């Protein structure tokens, strides 16, 4: 007998969702002993599973039944809510449990048709209910009206502007793609927003570090530019320097991983070549992050700035974001022009030029050609050169978006990893 004929998965999912939501609601609204409000106790571990199961049964019986049952349960919840608000000991009753009960019914109805989707959405609802205090703390104390406006700008870029941009190459050498430009602006805005939230929650030291590491997987050059601009706005704050440094660890890790997808031998050689550099980046970042609170940024003549309230004074600064995107587009245009001049000859030369814009794409292209058009050693060398030229792009952006001092200190910190990489290459070539 096929268990699916009885829709056991749907009913089980509905009960599971209701039980999870009910236990959380009952735990969140415990009535103190002796409180008369307990006579009208909140829906909890028994009521929510019944509501979700009612949704599944209604869905089994038909759409009309779902509509009628939803109206009936909504009326019952509304009546319960009215009584609770007029009960003398506790007149102040939130609406979250009432809405959660309605959502439980709808999720139960959905579970009858799509159990997996209903459970996934149930987990999301459960998380939203469970993080009540952190969410209220964040909404009330960590953001203001200006932040909400900036977040609306981000949503407008993502869902209104970006879909309207044509996805085709235009301009000199076909280097300018409007959709790509829009994605670049959105990416820079997202990096700024994530950094703003992270530093609000964790403080500038750990918040920026997380953004630097994560942003490095999206765009190492863009993240470096954002960190450099943060350092300039915060008067040489030392918190942006380790964040810009750890970007390079993300670049190395991603190059090794994506080349492994197309050629494991090239990836293994790259892991060996960059292993020492990655270890040095981690060590230097740890030293910078864990240094004493009264330290200053190396080479800075000014005391360390007070911790920032966020990654930027505003998470999304449209003029600043457009200026950073413009710098990257100029570099991309120069890259396309140089590639056109070089022509198709020389994989290493092409990788060097491509690396100015994106080390990962150039490395992946070289690894894909290994074994057919070029040798594994040549593909490995091309990937290393791409990472090297991409490092130059980061340093240029650090100087343009930040300050010469910031770019100089970042260069000094990266000198040891670069030397380690060169020595490893020399040992592999002549060892």
Low-confidence stretches: 31-40, 292-312
Sheet/helix structural class? mainly alpha
Number of strands: 0
Provide the residue-averaged pLDDT.
Answer: 78
Question: What is the overall silhouette?
Answer: elongated
Helix and strand element order: HHHHHHHHHHHHHHHHH
The biggest sheet, with number of strands, parallel, antiparallel or mixed sense and barrel status, is:
none
Please tell me how large the radius of gyration is. 28 Å
Q: Helical region count?
A: 17
State the distance separating the first and last CA atoms.
Answer: 68 Å
What does this structure look like?
There is one protein chain. The termini are far apart. Helices cover 75% and strands 0% of the residues. With 431 residues, the protein is mainly α.
Task: Produce the secondary structure layout.
Elements lengths: L7 H21 L18 H15 L1 H23 L10 H18 L1 H16 L1 H11 L2 H17 L16 H25 L1 H15 L1 H14 L6 H23 L1 H27 L27 H25 L4 H9 L3 H11 L6 H27 L1 H27 L1
């Amino acid at each position: 007998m096929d268990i699916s004929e009885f829709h056991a998965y749907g009913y089980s999912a509905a009960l599971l969702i209701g039980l999870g939501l009910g236990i959380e609601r009952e735990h969140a609204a415990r009535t103190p002993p002796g409180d008369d409000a307990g006579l009208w106790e909140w829906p909890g571990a028994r009521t929510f599973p019944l509501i979700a199961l009612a949704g599944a049964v209604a869905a089994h019986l038909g759409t009309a039944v779902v509509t009628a049952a939803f109206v009936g349960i909504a009326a019952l919840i509304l009546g319960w809510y009215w009584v609770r608000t007029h009960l003398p000991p506790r007149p102040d009753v939130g609406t979250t449990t009432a809405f959660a009960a309605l959502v439980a019914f709808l999720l139960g109805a959905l579970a009858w048709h799509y159990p997996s989707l209903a459970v996934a959405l149930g987990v999301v609802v459960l998380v939203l209910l469970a993080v009540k205090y952190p969410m209220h703390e964040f909404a009330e104390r960590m953001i203001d009206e200006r932040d909400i406006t900036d977040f609306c700008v981000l949503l407008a870029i993502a869902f209104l502007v970006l879909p309207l941009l044509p996805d085709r190459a235009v301009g000199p050498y076909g280097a300018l793609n409007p959709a790509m430009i829009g994605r670049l602006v959105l990416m820079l805005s997202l990096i700024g927003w994530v950094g703003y939230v992270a530093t609000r929650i964790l403080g500038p030291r750990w918040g920026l570090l997380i953004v630097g590491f994560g942003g490095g997987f999206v765009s190492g050059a863009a993240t470096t530019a954002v960190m450099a601009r943060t350092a300039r706005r915060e008067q040489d704050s030392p918190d942006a320097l380790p964040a810009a440094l750890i970007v390079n660890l993300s670049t190395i890790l991603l190059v090794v991983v994506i080349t492994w997808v197309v050629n494991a031998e090239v990836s293994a050689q790259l892991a060996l070549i960059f292993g020492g550099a990655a270890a040095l980046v981690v060590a230097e970042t740890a030293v910078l992050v864990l240094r004493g609170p009264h330290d200053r940024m190396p080479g800075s003549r000014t005391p360390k700035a007070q911790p920032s309230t966020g990654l930027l004074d505003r998470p999304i600064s449209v003029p600043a974001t457009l200026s950073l995107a413009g710098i990257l587009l100029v570099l991309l245009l120069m890259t396309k022009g140089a590639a056109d001049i070089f022509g198709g000859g020389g994989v290493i030369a092409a990788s060097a030029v491509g690396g100015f814009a994106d080390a990962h794409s150039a490395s992946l292209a070289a690894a894909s050609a290994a074994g057919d058009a070029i040798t594994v050693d040549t593909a490995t060398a091309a990937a290393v050169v791409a990472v090297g030229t991409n490092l130059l792009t980061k340093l240029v952006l650090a100087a343009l978006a930040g300050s010469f001092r910031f770019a100089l200190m970042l260069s000094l910190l990266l000198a040891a990893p670069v030397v380690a990489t060169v020595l490893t290459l020399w040992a592999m070539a002549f060892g």
